[in-house]
Every structure is written in structure tokens, then in C-alpha cells.
Amino acid sequence: MKQTSEHFKAHVTAALADPTLKIALNRTTTLLRERRAQVIADFGEYAAAREAAQKIKDHTLDNLAHYLAMFEANAVASGAQVHWARTPKEATDIVTAICKAEGARSATRVKSMLGEEIGIGEALAAAGVERIETDLAEHIIQLAGDPPSHIVMPAMHKTHEQVAELFREKHAQPSNSDEIAALVESARRELRPKFLNADIGISGANFLIADTGSIVTVTNEGNAELTTTPPKTHIVTVGIEKIVPSMAHATVFLRLLSRAAIGAEITQYTTFYNGPKRAGDADGPETMHIVLVDNHRTEMLGQFLRPMLRCIRCGACMNHCPVYAAVGGHAYGAVYPGPMGSVLTPAMSDLKSTKDLPNACTLNGRCNEVCPVNIPLPDMLRSLRARQHQAGLTSGMTRGGLAVWGWLARRPGLYRRATGLAMFAMRVWSMNRGRIRRFPMAGNWTRHRDLPQPELGTFMQQYNRRSRK
Ligand code: SF4
To answer: Which regions in the chain score pLDDT beneath 50?
Structure first.
């Protein structure tokens, strides 16, 4: 069954009851956090690079139309065909029309979240084009019939033992070993002939470079080059926010992206594509199409969600989010999970069907801290909560509670007396055991753990007492 954001709480309950998922998430998020911390500590210019990246993105977003027009002119001059799509449907219609015109029966594909966002898999299937995912993790989830659970590590929800079992069931010549190297070899045997026989290669792009009309892909497996070079046609689907003014600007992001994403100084393959094959080139596609997709991005440009368009899809916010690390990506029921997804999904759909997502956050601020382009995710999640409240989407109990709290907060004397009384009542309530095992209106908390006995005195009383010392 397809998971949707509307059933977030049910997905969370199921995810928390899955011990294998917990092992898979722990292994990978811990490794990625440790690696990132080390590589950032070794990168003396990190703060300056982060600030520069934010400024470049903000400048580009301020002049988005100018840079997109420059990109289009330069990409066309280098021989590519540029298409514009306002919606996911327009984008997939363009892709399937190209496939049809080429008489394509199969398409290899490099992992791209934009492709997931526009539903390229479903569109190719409806057009009768076989889709072959070439990224190792995407290959795994295609065999398993799963959606991606992370934007950089789409198979993060699987342990390598599960992958070994899957390959034994689905591969033509599987390995008997569970070793990772043997699994990679098995995938290589399976995918290699498909790379060479595909009619179309589809990729996304990590960056678009305005002053050269180039696109940039950043991968670790070399599958982007094998996807985009042998077929006659290369199609790129990419969000318009991926644009940067020049090659020099792109290098600022290249230094940040792999460090934030996988804790490495640079990825194995960074490729710049400038149009299709030219006379005298040994290889390359004969035609290259670039589909520039909006899908609510220009709406976000004009509102509080604008900083979200700085996102370079590194996934660091997910790796450092305690909620993501506990429930995994599928629970969010959306293409983009974790903190950035909890902002993007409501922005790309509606507040009502996604109302649990902005609330799936402890506001601890780690996501903002590790974001290489300094996106204030907690602020935006708070703004989305406020908008939900203004739109009447919060529960009666929440609205009532907030109304009482608001009334008291405007009367400080009464507020102090009320909180003092509440603390006293809670201490009496927990007198016997030193903790509270059941508490009215806090059942979701006390069902799983005890509430600690409150301290003596309110926060302000303790603060005043300590400041006097
Ligand atoms: S919001 Fe920041 S940390 Fe999260 S994926 Fe985007 S760039 Fe990376």
C-alpha cells in the first residue's frame, strides 16, 4: 500500500515496532554523522564556505529569471534542447513524448529526487518504457518495490543482510556471500548489459551553470556517466532552483555537498555536461533534452519558504534528526522525508493532508546547524504550525489549551500563580513513586515512559534563586 503523509502517525507506530529498521537506521545515520563531523572539523574554511554558499544562493534566487534565461541561451547554443514544465504532469508528458518520438523501449536512470517528485517511474511505466535504475541503492529498492527512504541513501531502511537475500531472489547470477563487495559485483553483472542496450538515459542534475549552459552530476558509482553516455538520447529533469551563476560558484557547493552528504571531501565522480556529442567526439548522446521544472518553486520564492530553495539535497538534516533516525523515511509518506521534507511536502501539496509533518519535530535545531546552506528549518516548521493553527487545522484540545495559555500569558501575576499551583499539584501526584506514571492529557507520553517529578519551584523561581547566589 502506498504510504501517504495523511497517515503519518500510523506509519510511525509501525516503524517503531520494526527492530530491523532500527538496526538499519542506526548503522547508517551514526556512520554518516561521525564522518561528517570529522570532515567538517578538518575543513578550516567551512564557516566561510557556508556563508558564501548562502549568499550565492540568495543572489541567484533574487535574479532567478535572469540566470535561467542565461542558462537556456547557453544550453541551446551548446546543442541541447530546453523545455519548461510548470507541473509534474507537464514534465512527465515532455519526457514520455521524447521517449515515444525516439521509439524507446528502455531507459536507464540515475537517481534524482526531482524524478521521484514528478513521478517519472509511473509515467514511464504508463508509456510502456522499461525503467532501469542504475544507482546501487535505487536498484535495490526497485527490486524490492519500495520508494526511497532517504534523499541520498534511498535504501537506508535495508540492512545488507536483507539486500543479500533480495539479490539471491532477483538476480540472474547472485552471489552466495553476504559481503558488500560480493553484492556490488552481483549488481554490476546484472546492470552492465542494460547500460549498454538502453535507448534513453535519464538523469537529474546537482547544479545548472548559467554562464556555460552546463549541467553537473555528482555521484560515487560512475553510473551517471554510464547512463548518460551510451544511449542515443540523454534527458535531464531538474528543478529550477538548482541554478548557479558560474563554474566558480558551483565549486563552492561542490566543496560543501559531499562533506555534508557522506562525510567525504569530494565524491568519486563529478561530471560537467555541455550539450550532446559533437563532430569528432568518440562517444556521447546524439540529442540532449533539459526539462526545467517549477512545481511550486516560483510560489515559494515569494513567501516565507524562499530559503528552502537554497537546498542542495545533501540529506544532512535527516541524518541528524532524532525523529528521522527513529522512524525512517517511509513514515513521512512523502518523496522528501525528514526536516527538509516536512517543509517541502506541505509547500508542494497542502497544509491539511500533511498536517502532522511540521509537528514531527522537537525543534532541537540540529538540522539548521548542520545545513550547509544555513536553511532555518525549525523557523519554517514553526511558521507552518502557526499557519495550520490559523487555518483551523489543529485539534480542539490544542486550540483550547493554547487559548488558556495565551490568556494566562498576558497576565504574568496570574500565570506565575497558576504554574506554581500546577507544579505543586504534580509533586503531590508523584509523591509516592517520585515519578508520574499516568497523567491526564499526556497519555501519549506516559504510555511509553514516566514523567519525572517536577523540580521545586518554577523555572523563573529557580533562575532568580540561582542568579542571587
Ligand atoms: S535542508 Fe540543508 S541539510 Fe537538509 S537536505 Fe537541504 S541543504 Fe541539506
So the answer is: 1
Which residue among 58, 371, 374 is best mutated to probe the pocket of ligand 1, counting the most ligand atoms within 8 A of its Cβ?
Answer: 371
Number of structural domains found in the chain: 2
How high is the pLDDT of residue 1?
45
Residue at 55 is within a domain: no
Q: Is the CB of 348 under 6 A from ligand 1?
A: no
262 alpha carbon to ligand 1 midpoint, in Å?
13
Instruction: Answer yes or no: is 433 within a domain.
Output: yes
Average pLDDT of the chain is: 94
Q: What is the CATH number of the domain that holds 73?
A: 3.40.50.10420
User: Pick from 260, 279, 295: which residue ends a domain?
Assistant: 295
Q: What is the pLDDT of residues 365-374, one digit of tens each?
A: 999 999 999 9
What's the domain range around 77?
A: 66-150+197-295
Q: Which of 267, 295, 323 is the last residue of a domain?
A: 295
The 3-state secondary structure of the chain reads CCCCHHHHHHHHHHHHCCHHHHHHHHHHHHHHHHHHHHHHHCCCCHHHHHHHHHHHHHHHHHCHHHHHHHHHHHHHHCCCEEEEECCHHHHHHHHHHHHHHCCCCEEEECCCHHHHHHCHHHHHHHCCCEEEECCHHHHHHHHHCCCCCCCCCCCCCCCHHHHHHHHHHHCCCCCCCCCHHHHHHHHHHHHHHHHHHCCEEEECCCEEECCCCEEEEEECCCHHHHHHCCCCEEEEEEEHHHEECCHHHHHHHHHHHHHHHHCCCCCCEEEEECCCCCCCCCCCCCEEEEEEECCCHHHHHCCCCHHHHHCCCCCHHHHCCHHHHHHCCHHHCCCCCHHHHHHHHHHHCCCCCCCCHHHCCCCCCHHHHHCCCCCCHHHHHHHHHHHHHHCCCCCHHHHHHHHHHHHHHCCHHHHHHHHHHHHHHHHHHCCCCCEECCCCCCHHHHCCCCEECCCCCCHHHHHHHHHHC
- 284 found inside a domain: yes
Q: For position 435, what pLDDT does the model report?
A: 85
Q: Would you state the pLDDT for residue 437?
A: 84
Q: What is the pLDDT of residue 2?
A: 59
Identify whether 91 is part of a domain: yes
